[in-house]
Amino acid sequence: MNFSLTDEQQAYKEKVIEFAQNELNTSYTERDRDSVFSREDWEKCAKFGLQGLATPTAYGGSADEVNILTATVAMEGFGYGCKDNGLAFGLNAQMWTVQFPIAQFGTESQKKKFLPKLAAGTWIGCHALTEPNAGSDVYSMETTATKVDGGYILNGSKRYITFAPISDVVLVFVKTNPKLGKWGMSAFLVEKGMEGFTAGLNRPKMGLRTVPFGDLFFEDCFVPDENLLGKEGAGWAITNSSLEHDRCTILAGQLGAMEYQLEETIKFVKDRKQFGQAISQFQSVSNRIANMKLRIETSRLLLYKVAWLKSQGASTMMESALLKLHLSESFVDSSLDAIRNHGGHGYLSENEIERNLRDAVGGVIYAGTSDIQRNIISKLLGL
Amino acid sequence: MEEKIVAFVNDQISSNQTDEKIEAQDDLLGGGILDSLGMMRLISFIETEFGIKVPPEDMTIENFINIETITGYISSK
Fold it and tell me: Which of A78, A208, A323, B36 has its CA at 20 to 30 Å from residue A42's CA atom?
């Protein structure tokens, strides 16, 4: 088995790290404190070509075909180089749950209309699935679309949607045939300004504060036929496919963050002296470092395996669930270990150690909670 | 082909709590026999067993509502 990256992938990863370190790491501590998104950094990422990784060149993207392995490696580098975890999270959310499904399921006219603007960073898109009464049990959603002449009338609301307050286009999932349960779910592209569609304000949260987050409301909102994505009833296949890709790359950014987190923690414990010696000499401290390293290596193995399987077009039900569970929980555990090793220094916001812990907690909830991942794993084992 | 799929659904993935076995015309989706994970496992089984690729755009109710439509879909590939 060969787990090494190609020269081309390694070179691209290093280029992404260099870009992120040199162009992006400004004002993120203040924006984290004030819950402010940087449109400027978003546009820099688009100019560099990151959003383009999820879009074919014919529609403004950066490759003839979307390459999930290259994108995963790039996002690992991005997470390592960019301290703004919210930006990495937001990029992945748009790339894999908005751009990718449009590229995969969209008509020629939908691809031409939406993808170039999303890849260029001039438009922002969001994926709207969760509802007030449909979280982990997402297919019990209540938002509906009723067929009328020339289109559909949407009614209902969505909750906890990344980029909801500032999106130009929303990929929203609704029931077109409630009698069929999850099989009667369809996807629509709703554009800002459509009558009956409104977005709520940014909702403050524990972590990932630099990416806006909020609710969407549809009240007798008319959406034309040409904005139906895929066939009527294709909603399940669309969201299933896009979330599998999202789980892979969204966690790549977290892995990158865990890598710089370990480097910074090692440097601190070697420099910090107590009882006449570096605290790295105390086993309680060094054991935590060893655990952080082990989590990175096991997470990377799972991540690269899923990315490789996806690049081969293989199904990754078990592997994706193991990856999502392990990597997200590892980031929480390692962020806590980093704080413990930094002591009081790590607890102060101004030193930027505690921010990773706040950002990591979201990972055990979004895109399928850890509890749901365990359910999937145990069910696949025949329980 | 039909017998293999019926056996797989009955033995491996049916969420039916009764001892009643499913038949080729039974509604797998609306009837609650398959949940979304069961559907993914069935697709994985079909890909391995019959050597075809089921792209996401083909995962629709028209193709997977019952075992008859599934065998028709596989034959068309």
Answer: A323
